[in-house]
């Protein structure tokens, strides 16, 4: 369960978020959409701790985490799949996955043994990753890297997953696969916050939708309600 | 006799060059995680060598002294990170250049006063009697330098590859923010890199002191030579520094004999300037795609 | 006006007169020696401050230049019997030449590498001076006799006045230089080398010039040093001296002629400080109290991190301990310098003068010189005749990053006088495209033509010189400069006067011309009243507008605006639209990357839509908005 309450954050002098509020309840997938520059990615980064909010609260299972270091928040069970995937290129696929489980695995020895079951689960979900387990992650295709990034998040046995523009830069066929995976993730019951540029996809898979503009949430509702809302369409094409 | 001088100079010099390689390796460690290095690393080598010497003088046998000296090196490395580097990193400035220089100067002066200005011999159980290998005379002591350097570099590389913490180290080097999102604290990883760098400095000190004696000036130009090696070898090649170190050491040996012992430092310095001129990206800036 | 002139120059004149009259009043050779050394170190530190203060680089070679200049003049006097003026000229030239030579490899490097290169050079010089005994007499030292000055043998007094006069000349010259376009450029380079290149100001050549200037002054100081002591040893010009020089510059205050002077005074008095135990104890206590006061104050105001408050206190405390317990303070000389330098760098980075300046400006409110009237806008930005011919043509332009094809064969035409919009989803290649056009990246394939001729590739500087100007998505303003200076620095076409005239203060006319032009541009973007505000203190929206004014100062043929409305609050967006409309009326061709569709619709004559590195649509805004491919790209393909 993730609650964001009147969050303010920005970069240097520029204040991008001006009072964003949203909620992600257990077992739901919440989509965050809006035009570019609205502050969606900034919201993700402020939640996961990559930037520190100036005002407002972020509650992870009712525990306030705003202002903490990103690594602390991650260790509390928040998994952020960042924009652009950001896999560790020089490390192998399997190493990337193991690092995903960093918060739960022994630091020195014995981590491989302990991670066996989690790895199996991820490989079941993404068989292609198992084929390429020893390959350097930087050599994987865009779609495979996206799978790896999601797999990494799962290895942490997270309480909440944040996914930032998983479709960016991917061919339409691969985007299909990614959203099929997201659908399967939904079935596991983990709360998911999804930022997505392709509105149609976001509306298909979400239980609830927030629309952001100029740093705050301007419309919210179920996908059905939003499809009928003209303002949403207008927000994108002026 | 004169004809075998050249290989002799080359081999003896090259073995010393391995010490530069080890210090350069220490630079690679801290640079990988934090894009910073300790400009006072030479003083770190010297102070830990002195400390190790003191340990032997108060009664520690050689093999017991080693872990003590190494621990001290780690602590010094952590101190450098806390006192001179962390603030600048937080402010995203390059103030660590000046601050590590200042710290090095402080260590130099402190060492002069605690241990005196004279060069002192460093005891070792390893024999200094020359043996003949392929017509060149080497001492087991010199061989121990090679063994020690390769051993410590090998151990650290094993650590990076075999432990999860080591993989986390590589992760921070590759993408700091993404590593944080995995729960890896970049700050603690940087501390680790400076600790390891201090460790390698202590090893270098212990290895080289029996040959060169311990003195306040023993490592003053070491930084620059280690830099030449690091710049020429490049960032990523952990063992490339070994090769370049060997070459530089050999060059120095030849220069010292044929040109004059005072000119010994020159090849390293010239090499550094040339390397920076030809490869400006060198240690500090792989061709980074600038984001504007 | 008179008050201002009197205050700024009055203080300097007063000090000069005081210093000059000392030998007439006080008959103490020791004091005279100190003052002579003060003048020499003053020149040396002014030189060092050019790179350390203005360029913000850690220059570790200044002691080496001092040594080179000293030995050069010493040797020319001993071997060729030159007079003082010629010998000093030789030492100046030595510093200049060596500085220029080392500058070429060193200045393409960023901070730490630059420090390394200068450090190596310094060590190399020390080795050479020591080892090349046939020339320098090595460690034994070189004795020389002070040469006559225009035939007159100078005694201590006369030599002192010569040094003082040279200091005064250097001071005035530097004052004029640093208050001219040169000074502005140095500071701009430090704040954003990317932006200086993009404004057509050669980053590299200016850095080399600054460094060579500093090293020339170092050489000159070296000549005076040689004639002062009449005995040289290589051991003088070593690392420890360099640290002392840095201590002087940082303690005195960077970017300040007065700071260099105060720092020089400190250095000169340093040996006395260390040899007199009581004095040192008082000094260390004073230092501790200052650290406590300053650190405590800033910590409670939360302006600094705890470490910045505590560390200087610890360092100064250690100094006090040393002062009261150690028998022979001299032995711990270097540790003491280290502690002092550490405290200043961490706790008082602006130095004494920077600190004092804040108080002085509060005590004495000096109204700055009145600004000139802004020039009429049409003289600054000449209205261009309507001309529908193509200005910029791109043919199958490509740019790859590894396997990623960010721009995958884009062809488009930008016509003169139009506002050409460039839109597309995230990751579509818009920014990469303009980065290639403006020269930040070289293309991986295809051609670019400006007015039918190939555009220079891969160089911001060359592209700027051809008439392309731009703003940046991540602001690249010169934060430490005022808004006015930000624009003035980019008005490069107004500065023609050669360097010697600038040094003598004879280029004021250019300054006024440039100032009025810059004010006109500031007025265009509505920032005229903020002309004197440092750019970093402006609100975000104003900073964006400032970047536009600066980009216009280059009189571009093609202006690229990269998401000018990003992060800007809604009312400011309206202002921005008005400004761009005015720019359009003047006839400047503009490429506009924007996400705000309403902005694009209002302003653009033509819009090109990118997706996945390719053009998917082009036309008037209304057409493009209805284009099925565009809708698909933004909303997702309809099933």
Describe the structure in your own words:
The complex is a heterotrimer of chains A (238), B (292) and C (639). Chain A contains ten helices and ten strands. Chain A is an alpha/beta fold and 238 residues long. Chain A has one domain (2-88, 158-237): Rossmann fold, CATH 3.40.50.300. In chain A, the strands form two sheets. A six-stranded mixed sheet of chain A has the order 6-7-8-3-9-10, sandwiched between helices. In chain A, strands 2-1-4-5 form a four-stranded antiparallel sheet, covered by helices on one side. In chain A, strand 4 and strand 5 (63-64) form a beta hairpin. Chain B is mainly alpha-helical and 292 residues long. Chain B has a domain at 23-220. In chain B, strands 1-2 form a two-stranded antiparallel sheet. In chain B, helix 2 packs antiparallel against helix 3, helix 2 (41-57) runs parallel beside helix 4 (96-115) and helix 3 packs antiparallel against helix 4. The longest helix of chain B is centred in the N-terminal third of the chain and has 30 residues, at 5-34. By secondary structure, chain C is of the alpha/beta class. Chain C has three domains: 25-237, no CATH class; 262-366, no CATH class; 387-635, Rossmann fold, CATH 3.40.50.300. At the B-C interface, helix 3, helix 4 and helix 11 of B face helix 4, helix 5, helix 11, helix 14 and helix 15 of C.
Which features does this protein show?
heterotrimer; A: 238 residues; alpha/beta; Rossmann fold; six-stranded mixed β-sheet; 10 helices; globular; C: 639 residues; 3 domains; four-stranded antiparallel β-sheet; 27 helices; 12 strands; 10% strand
Short overview:
Chain A is α/β, with parallel strands linked by helices and 238 residues long. Helices cover 40% and strands 25% of the residues of chain A.
CATH class division of chain A: Alpha Beta
Q: What's the multimeric state?
A: heterotrimer
In the predicted model, the low-confidence regions of chain A spanning at least 5 consecutive residues are: none
Q: Which sheet architecture does the biggest sheet of chain A show?
A: 6 strands, mixed
